[in-house]
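Build the 3D complex.
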Amino acid sequence: MLTGFSGTPALPSVVCVIELRELTKRYGGRPVVDRLSFRVEAGVVTGFLGPNGSGKSTTMRMILGLDAPDHGRALIDGVPYSAIDRPLRTVGALLDAGAFHPGRSARAHLLALAAGNDITPSRVDQVLATVGLSDVAARRAGTYSLGMRQRLGVAVALLGDPGVLLLDEPVNGLDPEGIRWIRDLLRGLAAEGRTVFVSSHLIAEMALTADRLVVIGQGRLLAETTVTDLAAGGDTLEDAFFRLTSQATDYRGSVA
Amino acid sequence: MKAAVRMEWIKLRSVRSTWWLAVAAVASMAASGIGVGLGYRSHTPVATEAQILNNSLSGAMLAQLLLGALGVLVVTSEYGTGMIRSTFAAVPRRRVVLAAKVAVVGGVALTVGLVASFAGYLGGQMTIRGTAIPTASLGDPAVLRAVLLTGAYLGATALIGVGLGTIVRHSGAAIGILFALMFVPTIAAGLFGEGGVAVGRFVPLLMLLNSVAVITPGPGLFDGGVSVLLMCAYAMVAVLAGGVLLRMKDA
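Done.
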């Protein structure tokens, strides 16, 4: 089920939790995210796939209201993120593994964010246990390894027990054990009926983690598909991915 | 708003720089007070009550930079580390976050400023004990007022720091601008000679030394209370400008 370059794909209206409508962001006149429209549904892991610099992180930041779109909107259950009361209870996000003060302990970091959303301190201990950081929670987060930082980021995402999870490149820099841990965690969360939206530039990893795929290149929607459908063309997932993204490059070349 | 204030309070007390800067502010004022007192012990002619009070509070010159830096770092350290994105994800209404930072930093800096100011005063008074120098008693309303206003001045400096940090977003740049704002106008006002007072009475450092931390303000200067209100107005302008930029710029 490949969609073209223009228009909103006519997907059947299932449970729709994250919805982008013509979301656009320009830096210095150049579109980084270009009229991006798609939906992310509950109960499955949706992979957000695209080469480096294709606009995945910018899209994630716009969904969270951190960057303002130049055009279009991103909605969660029909409302913009900024309109959600105590949003960590609805949406959990891992944007990058360094979004903490290196001098602050993991526990204090989580306690502060919990306090901002009226989440009880006992929940902080729960998520620390979930991500396996209980024993080092009093240590300054700046002393953590990359894997531990990712786990702290995941703890933040899980803090409010949210129904929607957004994770930007969660497996970046993780060892194989960490990658498997994230994969199992995400699949478990989706199986509980949550909406899980996870970006990656690694098609092989997405093939193992995601059920549905949203593929972008140069900020444009290339495909809204499933892992099964993408591989159904007879070639490997990797070939299918390259075919999609090279089209995006060609398209851009023709108008530039 | 209450939740945001609790969040900011936990964040402020859970980094070491807060404690270092607070301790350094108090220590610098105590040390200045003691140093000034010791210096005056052997000074002729015998110092007046006004001199010893004014000079024993002179550590506020350093304390204002330390507490100003504390205010700056509360904002810029978040931009420098990426923490700001976690903060705004938790509380998307940015001006609520800014207001919470102002409330928490204002309260903490005012408290630390008052402690530092009293430490400077006591340092001076304790070291001149047993000499002919007249005691500046806190029972004298003019003395108590000078000590309290100095603490309040320091609190306002931290809020100027919060505003600058929100505008500039970069620790080094914001602290550099803060220091420049404290010293450059002072030097500039000095270039006007006698006429400089007309400008100098609006300049933070000159207000501190000649209007706030004194029993009687220098000629042509504002009353200490007015000077502190002026500092609060500067802080408000900086914070409001920061608030406008927060709304306009991406996190």
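The beta strands of chain A are 16-27, 30-41, 45-49, 71-76, 91-94, 164-168, 195-200, 212-217, 220-226.
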